[in-house]
């Protein structure tokens, strides 16, 4: 089993819109974070599709990927993910074929089956509310349009056909884990909001994995919330922005990402606290040593091949510092492993 510092580490970014700021601010901050991540040695930078969320600016995910890839030079850039039931697979093949044509082999295509929205927004997207059930068929159609076309094929994705874009399946339960295994694809699990399902889903993925010519063995990436700061007290404080944001979703009134507070107990009820903690309770929060211990524990439990880190903070400078501390921890452990 690999140790901390021996596996790649990546960034999951939702382009958070803080209270009083704009989507333009958020997208500029995302590019700034991507450039910092590239300097710090992160492996990939993924953005995620969410709709009708006042605090998230990454709804037009393919466009945001182009924005990030165009402003960086080495880091892999992709979707974590595209919610495939919201789209015609042919359109996604064209979009990501275009991204590959522009930015070469740096592009990843991570796919999810949830709508990334509520019922009303799902209707606005012109999708059936049960359309996640046909995800395997949509995936097969997308893969068909991305492969080299047959001589008599009448509908061809240009760009897109014959491309070599790595496809990942994303999940927060067992459905996509099992499907990824059966299709021999890499898999990323959303432990950042579904911690209780992490180990069962990874076991299901690995048990069902079949090498079908894409990768030779299972490759599992685990998504985590990590809030790092120079002191644990400060890390706990900056994490309250995400806690408040999730609480607003629980209450049915999503908003922009609020400033941090020192005492969440003045904001939530015990019942609300339990609901939020059930989703965010797997977060790693603290100074460098606490983050190191937390990440080492997660790698030991999950045997992850890669970690992808989410930090939904209000203050952009605090977010940059959090990712910097994580990178420092990874590099220190890598140096220690190399010297042992």
Present the secondary structure layout.
Blueprint: E1 9-13, H1 23-40, E2 44-47, H2 61-70, E3 76-83, H3 89-103, E4 107-112, H4 119-124, H5 135-146, E5 167-171, H6 174-183, E6 187-189, H7 198-208, E7 220-228, H8 232-250, H9 270-280, E8 284-286, H10 288-302, E9 306-310, H11 316-339
Parallel strand pairs: 1-2, 1-9, 2-3, 3-4, 4-5, 5-6, 6-7, 7-8, 7-9
Helix pairs in contact: 1-11, 2-3, 3-5, 6-7, 8-9, 10-11
Polypeptide structure, described:
The protein has 340 residues and is α/β, with parallel strands linked by helices. 44% of the residues lie in helices and 14% in strands. An 8-stranded parallel barrel has the order 1-2-3-4-5-6-7-9, surrounded by 8 helices.
Label this structure with key terms.
single chain, alpha/beta, eight-stranded parallel barrel
SS-based class: alpha/beta
Main sheet overview:
8 strands, parallel, barrel
SS summary, helix count: 11
- Biggest sheet, spatial arrangement of strands: 1-2-3-4-5-6-7-9
Distance between the termini: 16 Å
Order of helices and strands: EHEHEHEHHEHEHEHHEHEH
Whole-number mean pLDDT: 94
Number of strands: 9
